[in-house]
Specification:
The protein has about 150 residues and is mainly α. It has one domain (about 1-25, about 50-150). It has helices at about 1-35, 50-65, 65-75, 95-105, 115, 120-130, and strands at about 130-135, 145-150. A two-stranded antiparallel ribbon has the order 1-2. A hairpin with a 7-residue loop joins β1 (about 130-135) and β2 (about 145-150). α1 (about 1-35) packs across α4 (about 95-105) and α3 packs across α4 (about 95-105). It comes from Meloidogyne hapla. Keywords: Signal.
Length: about 150
């Protein structure tokens, strides 16, 4: 079981590594802002409500048809394959687009895993491969706070 878990972790890490080239432009702007303003990290003041998070997911699905196909594929197989891992519910050729969409929506759109209706452990693994530390608040909605690690 440990071997299978480590293989899945390595596989997700390799997929997400491919995504870093697309995210690097946003990170360059972020690092320039930090260097210019002398702050170590940006303070987030915008936490979208659940309706706005669902709207953000729908907008991204409209912009990226492969993510829409993967996301719909996941939900169509969710009940019939309820004990299978998340990536088994998505077609193999859509894994990269599915993980990319989840990563971008959670990190830059601040969409919670509850709005995605996806297992929080999967979201945490995807974020951990990119160097994000996840902290959960002790309130009702348990929003995810992302704090950027300096070693990224």
């Amino acid at each position: 079981m440990k071997i299978a878990g480590s293989i899945i972790f390595v596989f997700i890490n390799s997929i997400v590594w491919k995504l870093t080239t697309q995210v690097s432009e946003i990170e360059k702007k972020r690092n320039a802002y930090i260097k210019e303003n002398g702050k170590t990290d940006l303070v987030r003041t915008f936490y979208p409500g659940e309706d706005m998070q669902i709207t953000l997911i729908d907008l991204y699905k409209g912009e990226n048809p492969k993510f829409r196909e993967a996301y719909d594929n996941y939900f169509s197989n969710k009940k019939s394959m309820h004990r299978k891992p998340i990536l088994d519910k998505v077609d193999r050729h859509l894994w990269v687009d599915f993980i990319r969409g989840i990563l971008l929506l959670v990190v830059y759109g601040e969409v919670s895993y509850k709005a995605h209706k996806i297992d929080p452990i999967f979201v945490k693994v995807v974020l951990a491969t990119q160097g994000y530390k996840i902290e959960e608040r002790q309130n009702i909605d348990l929003k995810i706070i992302l704090s950027f690690k300096t070693s990224f």
